[in-house]
Amino acid sequence: MATNNGDVLMLEATPEAARPWASAANAEVIDALPYIDDDYGNPLIKSEVDRLVEEEMRRSSKKPADFLKDLPPLPKFDFKNCPVLGKEYERVRAGKPPVRIDFESRYKLEMPPANKRNDDDAWKQYLQKNQRSLQQKLIELENLELMSKLGPELWRQNNHRLEVFLTRMQRLAQEQNEEIEKVNRERKYHQQTTSYELNALSQEWRQLCVKNMEIQSACAMLETQIDSFKKEAAERGWNLEEKLENVEPLQMQ
């Protein structure tokens, strides 16, 4: 996080917060001043940014197919406590159609097969089975009656609990949004306040660059003139080094 006298100017996402599964060597730091950087609306800047992004994408070895490779592996589910769910998971994973539930056979009265119609034990077994099925249907009817009596009130209570939970979640979301808005306002205020200093420093830097270029140009001109004078002195047979040695003692006096 960049600061100026304790004021927050910009936020930098740390590697641990942004990508906890990635190493620090591959971390990417977000560094921007969005409230005062006005280059984003410049079409020339945009075209240059698009060019750099396309160039980076061409150089990148990562393909769209393996963009999740840096993420940790998914946990393996064994469904030890729920074998029915495990069997259904394997069915969906294999792409098999769901098993059709036969509701009609549940309400049919079963009879012994034709070869056991004269067997009393077989009739007793099927009779007991049908009695159990009938008793189950009676219990289901009782459950439906209880549901019709007590179900509406239970649903109202459940809806009330859900509404309370929704209200609490909305309040927490509103508090988080207010905190985010507060941080954004502080960032905007500090960035805009510091922009005057940044603009002044940028202008000073430009002026110094221009002055340095002017000095370099003047130095180049002086070097050209000195080379020209040396050449002219050599043509006239003057020994400039000897003359300079005679001048230095006079200057010291």
From TrEMBL:
Cellular compartment(s): Nucleus
Annotated InterPro entries: SPF27
Keywords, alphabetical: Coiled coil, mRNA processing, mRNA splicing, Nucleus, Spliceosome
Stretches assigned to coiled coil: 124-193
PANTHER family on file: BCAS2 PROTEIN, PRE-MRNA-SPLICING FACTOR SPF27
Name recorded for this polypeptide: Pre-mRNA-splicing factor SPF27
A GO term from the CC aspect: Prp19 complex
Keyword rRNA-binding among record annotations: no
Tagged with keyword Ligase: no
GO biological process: mRNA processing; RNA splicing
Protein family per UniProt: Belongs to the SPF27 family.
Organism, as annotated: Arabidopsis thaliana x Arabidopsis arenosa
